[in-house]
């Protein structure tokens, strides 16, 4: 008679443990996230992913993978800092800009003059595109390297022009890509680099990318980069932190509006003499004029209104707990019936 209560207790404990694991697994997924990267001009990380992490075609991607492994390239849409909140330069030291100081992406920081590059024409209109696997409200700031840049040396903040040449808030989302119309700064020559910062306004989270570009025609023709297939990259999970407007993002303060609002693309092309140079470091708001050929663009209606809504996951976890408990009790009943038949 004593064996049955003992077995019942064991099964009950097992069911409770499994249910707890189901709940903790659901509630504990609020930190990892992955959302996108510069598509055109193609970023280093996405370019290496498209080459194939197991068999990269370029020497630069092969070297990056040899240093950091293949997983970084499969996680091409996750070069990020969850609590950046506009503090980009404070959180990312010189030499770590392309990886956002994330050890997983250390290979992206390798100083090399042979990273695959995109052809651009200085002083001309250009539509930048940013691949988004999880859309969010926020502001994009694009910087270009200055005369101190040497691709064979680690990239430092001082190698970037002090103000972004293009700033766009809540851009249009078309075919899974944010559309950022602007103008290439004039006077650029040879091999340079475009550094993109996407600071969310509904969260402190920010994303970073390095795109190698050339102005001598020796790179890949702009606009021909393949688009990653839907569902590629690390699956998106919303951050568990409460959604708060990010400071230093240039999007203002206060609660996020429940619907997309009109926004304008702003910024002064570096090297053109337009606007007043700012002494602020990259990643901080800077007053500037509107680049020629850059019109105001409506905020994409597809932008996600994100926050900390885990109710769906919680409901699923509770359901899983009940299923596990029911299965455990069914096992217990079968064992009891088997014992009764054996006793007779």
Number of helices: 6
Rg = 25 Å
Total E-strand runs: 11
Task: State the separation between the terminal residues, measured CA to CA.
Answer: 15 Å
Shape: globular
Per CATH, the class of the largest domain reads Mainly Beta
- Relative strand content: 15-25%
Task: Output the helix-strand order.
Answer: HEHHHEHEEEEEEEEEH
- Briefly note the structural class of the backbone: alpha+beta
User: What is the CATH third-level topology name of the largest domain?
Assistant: Coagulation Factor XIII, Chain A, domain 1
Looking at the overall shape, the CATH architecture of the largest domain is Distorted Sandwich
Percentage of residues assigned to helices: 10-25%
Q: Quickly count the domains.
A: 2
Q: Which stretches are poorly predicted, pLDDT < 50 over at least 5 residues? A: 11-15, 17-33, 236-281, 283-323
The H-level CATH homologous superfamily of the largest domain, spelled out, is chitin-binding protein cbp21
Can you walk through the features of this model?
With 344 residues, this protein is of the alpha+beta class. It has two domains: 3-25 and 310-343; 31-266, chitin-binding protein cbp21 (Coagulation Factor XIII, Chain A, domain 1, Distorted Sandwich). The protein has six helices and eleven strands. It has helices at 3-27, 44-51, 59-68, 71-74, 88-91, 311-343, and strands at residues 36-40, 80-81, 118-119, 125-132, 138-144, 166-169, 172-174, 177-183, 191-200, 206-214, 265-266. The strands form two sheets. Strands 2, 3, 5, 6, 9, 10 and 11 form a seven-stranded mixed beta sheet that branches. The protein has a four-stranded antiparallel beta sheet with strand order 1-4-8-7, with no helix packed on it. α1 (3-27) runs antiparallel to α6. The longest helix has 33 residues, at 311-343. The chain is globular and about 85 Å long. It holds the Pfam family LPMO_10. Residues 240-294 have a biased composition (Low complexity). Residues 221-297 are annotated as: Disordered. Keywords: Membrane, Signal, Transmembrane, Transmembrane helix. Residues 35-213 form the Chitin-binding type-4 domain.
């Amino acid at each position: 008679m004593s064996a049955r209560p003992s077995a019942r207790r064991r099964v009950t404990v097992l069911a409770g443990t499994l249910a707890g694991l189901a709940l903790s697994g659901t509630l504990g997924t609020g930190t990892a996230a992955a959302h996108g990267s510069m598509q055109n001009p193609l970023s280093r990380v996405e370019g290496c992913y498209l080459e194939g992490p197991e068999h990269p075609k370029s020497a630069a991607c092969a070297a990056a993978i040899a240093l950091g492994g293949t997983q970084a390239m499969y996680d091409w849409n996750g070069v990020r800092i969850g609590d950046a909140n506009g503090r980009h330069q404070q959180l990312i030291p010189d030499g770590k800009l392309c990886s956002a100081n994330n050890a997983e992406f250390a290979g992206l920081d390798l100083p090399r003059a042979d990273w695959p590059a995109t052809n651009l024409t200085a002083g001309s209109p250009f539509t930048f595109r940013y691949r988004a696997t999880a859309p969010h409200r926020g502001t994009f700031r694009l910087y270009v390297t200055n005369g101190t840049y040497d691709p064979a040396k680690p990239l430092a903040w001082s190698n970037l022009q002090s103000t972004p040449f293009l700033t766009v808030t809540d851009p249009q989302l078309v075919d899974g890509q944010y559309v950022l119309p602007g103008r290439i700064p004039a006077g650029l020559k040879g091999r340079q680099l475009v550094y993109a910062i996407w600071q969310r306004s509904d969260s402190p989270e920010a994303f970073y990318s390095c795109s190698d570009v050339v102005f001598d025609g020796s790179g890949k023709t702009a606009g021909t980069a393949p688009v990653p297939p839907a569902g590629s990259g690390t699956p998106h999970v919303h951050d568990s932190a409460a959604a708060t407007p990010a400071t230093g993002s240039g999007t203002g303060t206060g609660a996020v509006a429940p619907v997309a609002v009109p926004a304008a693309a702003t910024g002064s092309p570096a090297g053109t003499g337009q606007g007043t140079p700012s002494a602020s470091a990259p990643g901080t708001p800077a007053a500037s004029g509107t680049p020629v050929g850059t019109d105001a663009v409506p905020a994409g209606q597809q932008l996600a209104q994100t926050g900390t809504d885990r109710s769906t996951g919680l409901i699923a976890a509770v359901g899983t707990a009940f299923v596990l408990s029911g299965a455990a009790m069914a096992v217990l009943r079968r064992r009891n019936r088997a014992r009764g038949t054996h006793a007779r």
